[in-house]
């Protein structure tokens, strides 16, 4: 897991949704964006949706929910304006090659640990 000092969290839960084990690959510079991955678990009885992501300014300037699409053999990222659906009683991976949260304008490079 990579994160700036003080930004490590292993889980968050609210309203029946659990976000577990967030992680990101280390970055070399602050100019490159970083993708954040985690596991979504809807333990509630009602379908839900992850609509947005925020990030403290000491970590990055902004965060967006994206997905990765295969466009005729070329992998492309797309903003998910409607967020990520999290059906009741189901788990949704936010993992490399699929949904992820992009961090832009990093305050400092992400480092191992």
Structure description:
This protein is an all-beta fold and 113 residues long. 0% of the residues lie in helices and 50% in strands. It is built from no helices and 9 strands. It has strands at 11-14, 17-24, 34-42, 48-50, 60-71, 74-79, 84-86, 91-94, 100-106. The strands form 2 sheets. Strands 1, 2, 3, 5, 6, 8 and 9 form a 7-stranded antiparallel sheet that branches. The radius of gyration is 14 Å and the shape is globular. It starts with 10 loop residues before the first strand and ends in a 7-residue tail after the last strand.
State the gist of this model:
This protein is mostly beta strands and 113 residues long. The protein has strands at residues 11-14, 17-24, 34-42, 48-50, 60-71, 74-79, 84-86, 91-94, 100-106.
Shape annotation: globular
Biggest sheet overview: 7 strands, antiparallel
Overall number of strands: 9
Element pattern in H and E = EEEEEEEEE
Helix content: under 10%
Strand content: over 45%
As a whole number of angstroms, the C-alpha radius of gyration is 14 Å
Average per-residue pLDDT, rounded, comes to 88
Helix count, DSSP H or I runs of 4 or more residues:
0
SSE-based structural type: mainly beta
Identify the notable features of this structure and list them briefly.
single chain; two-stranded antiparallel sheet; 9 strands; 0% helix; globular
Detail the topology: elements first, then pairings.
Blueprint: E1 11-14, E2 17-24, E3 34-42, E4 48-50, E5 60-71, E6 74-79, E7 84-86, E8 91-94, E9 100-106
Antiparallel strand pairs: 1-2, 2-3, 3-8, 3-9, 4-7, 5-6, 5-9
């Amino acid at each position: 897991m990579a994160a700036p000092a003080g930004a490590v969290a292993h889980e968050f839960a609210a309203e029946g949704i659990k976000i577990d084990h967030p992680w990101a690959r280390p970055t070399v510079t602050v100019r490159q964006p970083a993708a954040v991955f985690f596991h979504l678990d809807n333990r509630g009885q009602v379908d839900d949706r992850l609509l947005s992501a925020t990030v403290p300014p000491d970590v990055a300037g902004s965060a967006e929910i994206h997905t990765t699409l295969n466009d005729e053999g070329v992998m492309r990222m797309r903003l998910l304006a409607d967020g990520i659906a999290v059906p009741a009683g189901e788990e949704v991976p936010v993992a490399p090659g699929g949904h992820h949260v992009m961090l832009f304008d990093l305050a400092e490079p992400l480092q191992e640990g």
